[in-house]
Amino acid sequence: MATTHSTRTARHTNVQKAALAVGAVFLLVGVLGFVPGITANYDQLQFAGHQSEAMLLGLFQVSVLHNIVHLLFGAAGIALSRSAAGSKSFLLYGGIIYLVLWVYGIMVDQESAGNFVPLNAFDNYLHLVLGVAMIALSVILTKGRSSRAR
């Protein structure tokens, strides 16, 4: 009986694996945003706002707030990956959040106070890709499974 229990807890669905991987990547990106060298212009990292000139991998404009959001998003993905339903929700609603961020990013003037995260063109394209990919993962990896499935 213990073998059945350990086998059952050791198996993870594909959607759980995807949520765990996505969460781990977000956590890693959040940490890397605080690493000089990986983040160019690290000495110009601001708490928030478009004045932050720090650039993760030299491409993505980041701030302390932006990095914290990545860390929290990553922690949420890892925590929600414990169940298939939580994993699906993380990927689906997280994907929707990233699509909303994409729309916000293309609509807000990058030099305005409204660009408080901050976001640049590379962030915007990445948010579009992330949003679509996360939603696709949530749908494809749970297709044909009931919402009560592990």
From TrEMBL:
Transmembrane segments: 20-42, 54-78, 90-108, 124-142
Pfam family membership, one: DUF4383
The keyword Transmembrane helix belongs to this UniProt entry's keyword annotation: yes
Transmembrane helix in keyword set: yes
Keyword field: Membrane, Transmembrane, Transmembrane helix
Protein name per its UniProtKB record: DUF4383 domain-containing protein
Organism (species): Arthrobacter oryzae
